[in-house]
Amino acid sequence: MEKREDLLAEAGDQGQLDQKSICYAPLAFRSKLIHVFEVYGKGFFCVGLAVSIFMYVTGVFELGPNTTWRSAFFELWPLFFVLAGVPGLMWLSSSLVFTLFPRWSVKAGRGPEWELDRRKGMVRVWRYRRRIPFIGRRTITVFEAPFYEFDGFVAGGVARYGVRFDFILCHRYSKLKVHIGDSLLGWHHNPRPCYALWDFLQNYMDVSRPLPEFPVLEPHRHKDPVTAEHDRKSGRPERYWRDMDDKTFKQKEDEMLSRVLSIDTEQRPNLMAKKVRYAHMTPEDMLAYGRGSRRGRNGARAPRPSVGYVQRDWK
Description:
Transmembrane segments: 39-57, 77-101
Keywords: Membrane, Transmembrane, Transmembrane helix
Number of domains: 2
Strand order of the largest sheet: 1-2-3-4-5-9
Radius of gyration: 26 Å
Strand content: 15-25%
Region (Disordered): 287-315
């Protein structure tokens, strides 16, 4: 892990996950491609190898009494190559490239895509555009707004494997959206991990509270004054997660997953419904939340957007 962090630093990676901020900066296409080859190659190789062995054994008995193990192999080897050989080559080639050329394999991308600044309480989103694709100077626009102006949304979609959920941060007074779930969580078939992520982000951005109990943040807990004071009073070990044995760590993981799957977000009262008007709200819904009209009880409209824009050119 430390070696890989050194590689990221040498490559100029701008990603960050510490007591200051969570900043997502994807790697270059080259690094993504190597990673995809390794992950999918390994997965399809294991599945393809199992299928190939099963087909090989059954093929020996179905091709006829005169069929030997050797003749069956030569009869079916093109299929074996497609099922297990191609994924195996993908896995092997990506592993060799990363092992032999680690600095070439790890390359920083164009820059950060979004950031949650804990110290300043801001959310920043970067947009990269060129007037002509692949030609000319790249224009970078940075959108910035306070975290408290964002709402968490769980978006559901239908794929060939069923319903999938993603978490999105949406700015209340503009069309700004941040697809945080794709980066931090990935797609899930259950919305509850998205609810847990929303709780985590709110706790993380609250500077009056200690950092969330998260293994990746443990090396940075002593750098945050509130967290350091909390750990001192509670007697929390400095290397609580890092010195934990594998069996206990797996047990803690199972406990956290159990709490995530039983989270009570859907039973909590919707406090924001008393302050803002949602597009799907009917007058009856607003009365149920204590609001007499679409403009609110005091007749005031929503505040003006506080999104900031910073634009600069980049080669």
